[in-house]
Write a structure and sequence with these properties.
Helices cover 26% and strands 17% of the residues. It is built from six helices and six strands. The longest helix is centred in the first third of the chain and has 14 residues.
Length: 155
């Protein structure tokens, strides 16, 4: 009988979430993308915005299955592509806070390689902050050889 070993990290991401993410990323042909993740019961607690000048379809907000999109127009049209971040057997017992961090920690498993064979540049954003730097500026900074960048908190 064949052994079915599943990568323990891959098991944290629901196959449907991975599939839907791949479809929208590849359709938008995002060489760089911004994303965040929130898992609360009910409506998003704050208005989150992607970086300015983010190409259409290249900003993703992962919502837990019990999180609803903003009802008011200002937040609903903020430029995000909403994706449902579904739980798996491996993530079922995680707190909402820990669960919402899975996309942050696993972009290499969540976002597919592009036709060029490279992964897109990914920029994770704290959903409570409002970025002021355009996505292309962040992409240029990371293309200079940096593997990780952090910005000073505004307060």
């Amino acid at each position: 009988m064949a052994s079915h070993n599943i990568d323990p990290l891959r098991a944290l991401l629901h196959p449907t979430t991975r599939h839907e993410t791949a479809q929208v990323v590849l359709a938008a042909n995002c060489t760089a993308l911004a994303y965040t993740s929130v898992d609360v019961v009910g409506e998003l607690p704050h208005d989150s915005q992607p970086p300015p000048l983010t190409p259409p379809g290249c900003a993703f907000l992962f919502l837990g299955e019990e999180t609803t999109r903003p009802a008011h127009k200002a937040a609903a049209g903020a430029g995000w592509t909403y994706l449902v971040h579904r739980r798996t057997a491996s993530s079922a017992s995680l707190s909402r806070r820990a669960f919402s961090r899975i996309p942050k920690l696993l972009p290499h498993l969540l976002f597919p390689r592009l036709a060029s064979g490279r992964h897109p540049t990914t920029v994770f954003l704290d959903s409570k902050l409002r970025p002021t730097a355009p996505l292309h500026a962040l992409q240029r900074f990371l293309a200079g050889g940096a593997n990780f960048a952090a910005f000073r908190h505004p307060k």
